[in-house]
Amino acid sequence: MVEAKSWYVVHTYSGHEERVSKNLDQRIKFMDAEGEIGRIVIPTENEIEVRGGQRQTVSRKILPGYVLVEMKMSDQSWRIVRNTPGVTGFVGNGDKPVPLGEEEAERILKQMTEESPKLKIGFHEGQSVRVTDGPFIDFIGIVDSINSEKGKVKVMLTLFGRETPVELDFLQVEKL
Questions:
Q1: DSSP 81
Q2: Which of 72, 131, 148, 175 has the maximal Cβ count within 10 Å?
Q3: Domain boundary assignment for the chain
Q4: CATH topology classification for 6-119
Q5: 121-175 carries CATH number 2.70.150.10
């Protein structure tokens, strides 16, 4: 009977995920454990940030300080992963690592492969913002609503002595 590989969550020092992934990959090859240990995944997703009026796509870790490892659990595979520099342990109760549920592992892997990156917004409803572009440049208003699908924000500006809602692009406003 061929035992199927399961996904395990490995805890690492924060910020050392890439180093752990490379070290573990080298240890697997050196100790000839390709049959027991499969893929090593650092869960990340793409996010669009607005910095200095420019949109930038950045990769953000979904689970900082954790790496997913697909493996058959045995004493040898446990030792290889556990003794990798930067690894602090497996996620589980007590000494025995607990594999991720199949649905949960697939949800994390699917989240990584989503087509459109999420938009990270530097402001929230009720916050004061300054208009940086367009006909209302240098006006200060309060965010009324945010439409992240369209990349628009509705800002309440004081025009002619009245509060007026104005729909602007995320790139046209900055938080104060």
A1: H
A2: 131
A3: 6-119, 121-175
A4: Alpha-Beta Plaits (3.30.70)
A5: no
CB-based contacts of 106, cutoff 8 Å, min separation 6: none
CB neighbour class for 49 (10 Å; exposed up to 12, middle 13-18, buried from 19) = middle
pLDDT (tens digit per residue) in 16-68 = 999 999 999 999 999 988 889 999 999 988 887 766 667 778 888 888 999 99
> What is the DSSP track for 144-174?
EEEETTTTEEEEEEEETTEEEEEEEEGGGEE
As given in the structure block, the two tokens for residue 104 are: 């949960």
CA distances from 131 to 10, 45, 67, 136, 137 (A): 45, 29, 41, 6, 5
Considering the entire predicted model, what is its pTM? 0.69
